Amino acid sequence: MLIYAKQPINYIINHHPDKIKTLYLAKEIDKKEYSRLMKMDFEIKRIPSDAAGKMCKNASHQGILAEVEDYKAQNYKAFLDYKFLVVLSGLTDVGNIGAIIRSAYALGVEGVIVCGVKSLPFEAITRTSTGALFDMPFAIETNVHDVMNDLKTSGFFTYGADMDGSDIREVEIKPKKALFLGSEGEGLSSRVISKLDEVVSIKMSHKFDSLNVSVAGAILMDRMRI
């Protein structure tokens, strides 16, 4: 798969260089950095900027692109022994998914499960997560209710974000927990909410509808660290 832009590619170079097949440079880089890259085991090709633009359909590539190994999602059942999971129910925006993965990795979440979809564009998610996808156990499962049932039978206490929930600052956080986040527009379905152990929210200081789901998710993840 093709990844572009400095942040995700630099992350992959520094943490997962074995996953890079070919690195494409569309502009000059520091000589020391180029010398460092030349010592790695992937191929480096210099290409014109217009060729780079065609490769990424004229997106902002910042002069660097990389062909990396295809990402393969895991089976969520491999996560049932973990202590802290995030479940995304009906969320499809790759920008939000990538941002949530990035925050989850930074805040100690051990796995992310996306429900309600059959597939996702991993190139875009790798980019929007700035490469953190390669370090975050990640799974896709169509049926969120199957996931919820398996988590509960495996001892997870389930929390879900909803504006009508209890203030997260006043909620007891269990050691083994899963945080459910809904879609940007609809939130969690009523059926999912009815099966949760606890519904939580972020209380606002001013009258305001809501926070972006990736921002809200990061705040809740941080509050749930114990």
Description of the molecule:
The protein is α/β, with parallel strands linked by helices and 226 residues long. The chain is built from eight helices and ten strands. The protein has helices at 6-15, 31-38, 49-55, 94-106, 122-128, 144-153, 190-195, 213-223; strands at residues 2-4, 20-25, 43-46, 64-68, 84-89, 111-115, 138-141, 157-167, 177-182, 198-201. The strands form two sheets. It has a six-stranded parallel beta sheet with strand order 7-6-5-9-8-10, sandwiched between helices. α4 (94-106) crosses α5 (122-128). The chain is elongated. The protein starts with a strand and ends with a helix.
Helix content: 25-40%
Oligomer state of the chains in this structure: single chain
- Tell me the total number of β-strands: 10
Average pLDDT, rounded to a whole number, is: 93
Strand order of the largest sheet: 7-6-5-9-8-10
Biggest β-sheet strands, sense, barrel: 6 strands, parallel
Instruction: Please tell me what the overall shape is.
Output: elongated
* Terminus-to-terminus distance: 37 Å
Strand content: 15-25%
- Helix-strand pattern: EHEHEHEEHEHEHEEHEH
Tally of helical segments: 8
Helix/strand structural class:
alpha/beta
CA radius of gyration = 20 Å
Which blocks of ≥5 consecutive residues have pLDDT under 50? Answer: none
